Structures are given as structure tokens and as C-alpha cells.
Amino acid sequence: MTGRTGAFGGSRNGATGTGDPDARWLALLMHAAFFLLLGASLARFLLRHPGEDRTPWIIALSVALAVLYVLGPVLGSRPTPRSVVWLGVLVAVWMVLVVLAPSFAWCAVPLFYTGLRILPPRAALALVALLTVFVVAAQLRLADGFDPNLVLAPPAVAAVATAVFVHMQRQAARQHELSERQGELIDDLLRTRRELAATERREGTLAERQRLSMEIHDTLAQGLSSQQMLLQAADRTWDADPATARRHVRTATGIAERNLAEARRFVHDLAPADLAEGGGLEAALHALAARETAQGRLTVRCHVEGEQHTALPDRVQSALLRIAQGALANVKEHAHATEAALTLTRLDDRIVLDIADNGQGFAPAELTGPTGGVRGHGLPAMRARLHQLGGTLTIESAPGEGTVLSAAVPLTPAPAPTTAPEAPA
What pTM does this model have? Predict the structure, then answer.
């Protein structure tokens, strides 16, 4: 807070700051009261004491007091040396007027306010006491005899005026402090909201990057790997068996066309191309099985069990199709299998996709890498997809007995995961 803090509890300019409408109204009221009391006192003197020798002095001092008081707002309400000198001259002129004409004593009330507004606390209280003494003396001079009411009333008025002003100062100080605290709270809230928005943007960016990495791994990367193997096989058999080499090239061309469609789909809406062609997940799995079988290295069959009561959400269809693509890519690359089966089972509360092969199988412990995580990209990507949907991934395998991979997704809304899925290694 700006301004001087003293015994009155608050800033010296807190009650009269330009930002407080109540303080401005009080200042205007005190100014009006001063000039009203000054005019009434002068009129009373002229009516009761016409033609006296002191009359010109009374009129001149009244005009001087009014001019001095007008200069007060120009000097401001801060306790600067100029304002203190001005207040001293103003009070001195008033005292002279009170000595010459006791009726001017009631102008002391606005002067109380002026002194409390400008001076430090102790000096202001001393000024109020001095002005009160002059008021009491002036009232006793006007009275015919001793009147206890004239002795007690001015100090009571001074005490009430001082108490009201001190209370207003404290209220203004509290209001100013409350406003500052509210401003700080608003700044903290805005800063927290900005930080939260930035965190959400970062988390959204990381989640989108992870999703794109899984999409690319399950489509473009696997397709490019298949193309590489087919073209290498064509290169090895080009001279000895041109027909087989050309067949490998044609198959690689077909894969390239599918990859191109996937890439265009990424640009459009990142939805799987098979699903975008219509027919839903069942048709997409049959098309995937037919493509893999057409390549000649692996025979893939597709079965669908259960009736479809409601359409599957797009996210579920996309995730299961990507899991099937990634699983078949792993079968071709690692299992050395000749047959595989895709089985889509529709149950009342979930949908299950099983991918089984007759390959060489493996021990589940072989999936753990040196650092404790799962090796490769395929299985972590599948688990991450299912984690986002509240589903589970189960792997059953043994050396020489093939592998069955089962992905189950609940059809009822699942609670959002409390932690973000682990990014694929």
C-alpha cells in the first residue's frame, strides 16, 4: 500500500484516495460545510456587530481564510512540507478570527477533518485538541455565564469527528488490502490456468505423438518392412526364376498402394483405410486376412462370432484393426508360421479379438528386455491402445506351440485411466 501507515490503522491517504468514491463525497461535504459555516459566522457577526472597528478585519480575515482553504486541494492530502505550512497558516488565521469573533469557532469541525487528513497521527490529535480548546473558550465567551454543556459538547463533537474519520481510514485501509489480495488471487488463478492449459497442451501433444507412432508402426512401417523383404526376395530370384521375382514385385506394389492409401488417410483424418471404405470392422478384418494370404507367405483366416446389436465406436474399431495388423506383422517377422486366424467374438459386455498362429512360439519371459521393459514396439503399442479404451491384452504362448494373442475391449464406458500409458520403447 502507498501512503503513510500510523496509529490510525491504515494509510494516511487511504480514506481520501482518488480511487475511493466515499472519500471523495466526504471531502466535498467537508468543503461545503466549511464554506457554509464560514459564511454563516460572518453573517452572524455582521448582523450583531454592525459598524464596529474590527468589522473590516473580520471581513478581510474571512476572505483570506476562504482563499487559503481553496488552495488546500491544489496542494494535495499528503503530509508534505508545503501542505503542513499551508495548514499552519490556515489554522493561525482561523484562531485570529476566533479571538476577534467567537462565532467563527464552529468552522473547527472541517478543520478537524483537514488536520486528520494531512498530519501524522500524533500531530493530528494534538491539532484536534488545540482546536477544541479554542472552541470551548469561544463558546464560554459567547455565553452569559458558565455552562457545563458548552465545556463538554465541543470535546464530544471533536471525539465523534475523530472517531468517524479514524474508522473510515481503517475501513479504507482494509478495503485497499482486500483489493490487493483479490488482485493477487486473480493473478494466481490466471497464472494457474495458463500453466494448466500449457500442461494440457503438452500432454495432448505427447498423447498425439504416441498415437501417431503406433499408427505408423502398425501400417507404414510394417508395410515398408514387407516391401523390403519382397524386393530382396525378387532380387535374389530375378535371374533364376523371373516369374517368381515379378510376382514378388507385384505383391510389393500392392503393399505400396495400401501404404499410400494409409498415408493419405493419415493426412485426411488418421482413420484406417479399410474402415474408411465402409463395411465396419468385420469387413476390414476379412480384407486384411485376404491381403496377407495373397502375399503367399502366410494363410490367414477370419471368423466372426456373435451378433452385432449396436455399432462399435470408431475408436474401438480402429484400435482392434491396428492390433490385428500389428499382430500379423509380428507373426510374419518372428513366428515363422504358415497359418494364422483372426477371430472376432461379440459378447454382451465386451468384444474380443483373438489372433492365433501355428508358429514356433516363445516363452513370455523372452519379452522382457535388459531394462525390465517390453522389447520392441508392437506389444507396447497394443497395450497402450487397449489401455486408452479400458481393455486388456493377454498373450498365451510356449516354445513350439504357437501363440494366441487376445485383445478384449469392454463395450460399457470405462473410467479414464489415471495415468498416461507408457510410451512405446
Answer: 0.41
